[in-house]
Amino acid sequence: MFLNHFAYGQQAKVASSCPKLAALLIPTRKHRPLSRLRNAFQAGNSFVEDPLDSHRRQIRGQLVRSYVLSSSGVSPAAPPTATSSLARLPNHLAVIMDGNSRWAQQQGLPVFTGHQSGVDAMRRTVEFSCNEGIHCLTVFAFSSENWQRTNEEVEFLLMLIERVVRKELEILVAAGVNIKFIGDRSKLPSSLVEQMKRAEAATAPNSTLYLTVALSYSGRQDITAAVRNICHRVQAGEISPEEIDSELIGSNLALHHLPEQWREPDLILRTSGEQRLSNFLLWESAYSELHFSETLWPDFGERELKAAMDEYARRERRFGKHH
Asked: Which of 51, 81, 175, 285 could be bridged to 6 by S-S, CB 3.0 to 4.6 A?
């Protein structure tokens, strides 16, 4: 679901030192190859992986692993520092990933293929964030309202998320990604919850990119839980009502794990032409810039991300101040 950012940087280095390997390491098609996890997911279902893609993937993995262990000297918690060519970037980018089902319908395909293709868009977005130096990326993967979908679709989505996290965990660690999951875990399958915990523990030392996945999440429920927690503290005599302020409430919300200066998204991006927040980060979005794209999520890539960044760079953020 996420990316091969660190491995891709090493691929480029290997290819530059040995040009004959370039054709294997760096494909020439428009988008970079699908992640290992999607190939693994396809192999376990009715999809068939292209033999050449499989061959390239296997050799890429072997070469990159050998190169990293023998010559890079870069630890998993300290991957190469990204440099951006864009004028001004948000420190915290939040994304409402919308349009998977409509994309599948337009292609005449089952809705499940739309979600699977959405994994590739997620991977491109995480890779872009790492490459460009965005500090925090928060994505809306599954809302509390999404439980109202058919049992088949919900089961597929949760199974897909679990497989994605499991298969990509090693790459996330190597890329310096710190992953956290927010939302109500009580309804999630126990196997998924255990995988989420393992991923969080394995990536805890990392800080290149703080990746937060909102899963079974509701902004209203998040605020409600924060208020309830503060009320318990008041009842226990830990704090007085007069001590309750916006900073205290914010520190009790789901994004409290992020560095304080980056907890509120600078830019919230939504795909598929819809123009609403849909119960996502309601407290944190008070001063967020909003960008709405007509592109459906599975088609969303680097070009659309750069367009959003360019628009963000042109905006003047006043925070209520007069200029």
From this structure: 175
